[in-house]
Amino acid sequence: MNSLQGASYAGLAFTSWEVLITLPEEADYIWIYPLRLTLIKSLYLFCRYFALLVQIANTMFARLLEARYPVPSSTCKLWLMYQAFVTYSLLGAVDIILMIRVYAFYNRNRRIGIILLLLLLCRVVLSGLSAAMTIPDQQFNSACLSNKMPGVVLYCFAIGEITLQTALLVMTFGKQICATSQGWARTPLVSLLCRDGSTVYTITCSVLVGTILYARFGYHHETAHFVFPLVFLFTFPETKFRILLGPWFLSCLALAAV
Predict the structure, then answer these.
(1) Where are the domains of the chain?
(2) Is the pTM of the predicted complex or chain greater than 0.90?
(3) CA distance 242 to 203
């Protein structure tokens, strides 16, 4: 269980460092007077500080699991359910932020809004059903690692998330093509949406594919405990920073008007 504790403390250290170094930007763009806590700001704060709380909780859970070594299978199932819930929640918040940006980019078109909601609903249902069907049957070793990779959960979640991210990216660049034909594609806001959409898409898909590959070939090794905190380190801090704390953040808020 030493690897689990090491992964938890490393995740907490780097997440705390990320929070500290971006505090000036947060103060400039989030805590501005008059304070108006909009939906998109609330989602950002959720991603930022809920992720920090999760890393703190991970260190506590790691010590608890070590104290109960060998860990009972029932406890390991709860640990796996906790990891799935936290990952789904945080990545879902990032998805909603991106969807709000695309929705605003299309001038709040109702059809676009319905399409985005349906995509998100399909992703949530697909991930939830796959987890509900797979996690109860998982068996674990003494290190709280599953004896069999939960492939259905990983594949369904990855397919749903990559599909959603691809749709958002295609819609963003599709709007850029329309903007080009209308002569306003060179505005900074259009460039920001396309650039940040591409960045988030690349990071998210790379992390998901990398996680699946590692799970496929090294899932039973104790270093697998590093996967959960590393997903936070490489996905959530960078994505929420890129899509919210850029120089044109206030313009995006004005465009979204939420």
Answers:
(1) 2-256
(2) no
(3) 11
List the structure tokens of 34: 């008059």
Q: Exposed, middle or buried by CB within 10 Å (0-12, 13-18, 19+), for 90?
A: buried
Mean pLDDT of 144-171: 80
Q: Which CATH number applies to 2-256?
A: 1.20.1070
CB 102 within 8 A of CB 168: yes
Could you tell me if 25 and 48 are in contact, meaning their C-beta atoms sit under 8 angstroms apart?
Answer: no
**DSSP tag of 140:** B
Give the pLDDT band (50/70/90) at residue 116. very high
The sign of the CA dihedral 143, 148, 153, 158 is positive
Q: Which two tokens stand for residue 49?
A: 């500080």
Instruction: Give the chain's count of helices (H) and strands (E).
Output: 11, 0
183-209 pLDDT, tens per residue?
A: 765 666 677 778 777 877 887 788 777
